[in-house]
Amino acid sequence: MQSSMVDTKAVKEAVKVTEMEPVGINVQELFKLDEPLPYVPATMMINKNRSPLCEDIVDYDFNPVRRQLQAALLGTNRDAKILCIGDKGTGKTTFIEQLLTRLNRPSVTVNCGEGVTEEYLLGRPTVKAGEVCSADGILSAGARWGINIVLDEVGSLLPEVQISMNDFYGKQKRIVLKHYGLDPTVHPEVAFMQEGSNVIPRHRSFRLWATDNLGGKQGMAGANGYLGTNEINQATRSRLMYLHFNFMAPDQELAVLKSKQMLPNGHALAINEFVLKQMIHFANLFRGHQVSGDTDDTISMRELERWVGNCEVYRGNIDEAFVDAIYTALNPRDQATALNCFEEAIGRELVLTEEHKWAQKFMQA
């Protein structure tokens, strides 16, 4: 295998992921924490140069997840491969992205699924200018250049793709992309040091993150509404550090929904705090049914935010806003539960739109 034809110096200059100019920063101030984190040094060294691969910094409160933040900071310093687990909408991916962007660490998030192949992640041989050369995938490029890779919903990858990544979960200094093969005419010591080759010197800044709804243990996937996911094998799970995420407390969700109501012109939507609390009460009632196995789905914070946002479109009509934000996406069994939860939380029956009224009559006939 010949080395890559890519101009590596030009790539380094453009991406700037290897140009480390350390600067000390106060951890408590950086993450706007109410109190210092135990065991975490008060000052951390971060890269002064901000990579274009950093996500935008958004308003994110780390105080409710300070325990996860503490573990993540300590773990990433030891090159731990971190898997964030929890129900949909508990903020797993956002937590990782907002942590990394505050540390000025470049990252790329991969939305996993059956369409994400081994070639997409690890690369493939290709031909350029009549010569065989290697083309990196997302994961191999991250290991080569020092980019944090976030595998979102890693359990949805096909089992054979998950197995192909095992070398990246380890701590070896070099990763051999086995499917490329080694050039028999090149001495191994030379091949292992070639830039752009199929032997990757693991960059000291490379970190691997992942999220999953069930922590890779898919035995209850169908019962919990996560069909299409695959079990992560035990050998891989043993290499991972787990962080668990829950839904926020009601007062924290209320604060988020209040902030989402503010429009650019400074005017707030006509949804008072009492109604917002009713919406949160609905979500928690429905979540309780999912925990007990009565429903397939749950209600995420994203769906609550969408409900509130739809109220702007429908001028405060929470019923139509609810139908479009939540109700329509549920299966018939969950819709029946949603109707009961809505009535209990809001204090009256949901006013369904015409298409759903017709569907209910059809089901009852």
Number of helices: 16
Largest β-sheet summary? 5 strands, parallel
Helical content band? 25-40%
**Strand neighbour order, sheet with most strands:** 4-7-10-3-11
- The oligomeric state of the chains shown is single chain
Q: Tell me the total number of β-strands.
A: 11
What does it look like?
Helix 11 crosses helix 12 (273-291). It contains 16 helices and 11 strands. By secondary structure, the chain is of the alpha/beta class.
List keywords for this structure.
single chain; two-stranded antiparallel sheet; 14% strand; 16 helices
The gist of it:
This protein has 365 residues and is an alpha/beta fold.
SSE layout:
Layout lengths: L7 H8 L6 E5 H4 L12 E5 L18 H12 L3 E5 L6 H11 L4 E5 L6 H5 L1 E5 L2 E5 L2 H8 L2 E5 L6 H6 L1 H4 L4 E3 L11 H4 L7 E3 L6 E5 L21 H4 L2 E5 L5 H12 L11 H19 L9 H13 L4 H8 L6 H15 L7 H11 L1
